[in-house]
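seq:
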Amino acid sequence: MNSPHRHRSRRPRAALAAGVVLAGGTGSRVGAEINKAFLQLGGRALAGWGLATMGAVEGIGPLVFVVRPEDRAHAEAVVDRGLRQRVEVIGGGRTRQESELMALRHLADRIDAGAVHTVLIHDAARPLVSRGLVAAVLHAAMESGGAVPALPAHDIAAAGPDATLALPPERAHALLRVQTPQGFRADKILDAYEAAARDGFVGTDTASCAQEYTDIETTWVRGEETNFKITYAQDLLLAQDVVAAQRLVPRWG
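struct:
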């Protein structure tokens, strides 16, 4: 692993996981004039759902809310609705990976001290993640060092040469649709992102950076159909239908 040698303290008994919620996108593809993370769903901003859910999971302590500098006022308004004592709003970078790195650097002192042992990184645009799934990812990450939620992609096959299928439909279960939150051992993922920054490596998600720069064998837990990403206007409509059908209410703390 290409990373600097960092001094790590033994994990104290009170060590916690940290939850990171990324809200660095825009509302262009969803047809909004503001960052989609601040669009309303069931009376709460999209980002508020993820923050509330992660904050309600036992073992998660600090919550880091990563936003574009121009969205800070919106972010403060979301935090003001609850969990105010636990959410730390910070500015993000130009890319998802830069924003993740800034969140990890924000937590670095606590990671080095052993106060934060695991970090879970979640997309604000996936508002309907459940507490159960967050807890399952956290547990798996603590056991193996890294974990992601995913769903078997039965409807996907690999394309081969000459318009052929390289992967027969009966083997399509070998492919996965990866979701968030993705959880990793804090010290290793911090070192991985620092190494990636030095090398100019840009991954597709947290797991890709972990795969490139750590020896962690990332495990997967079964994701949820309702943990979909809000990308287009129809996704927000679907989320509204889910909230109405399941009578979901975002709870703080």
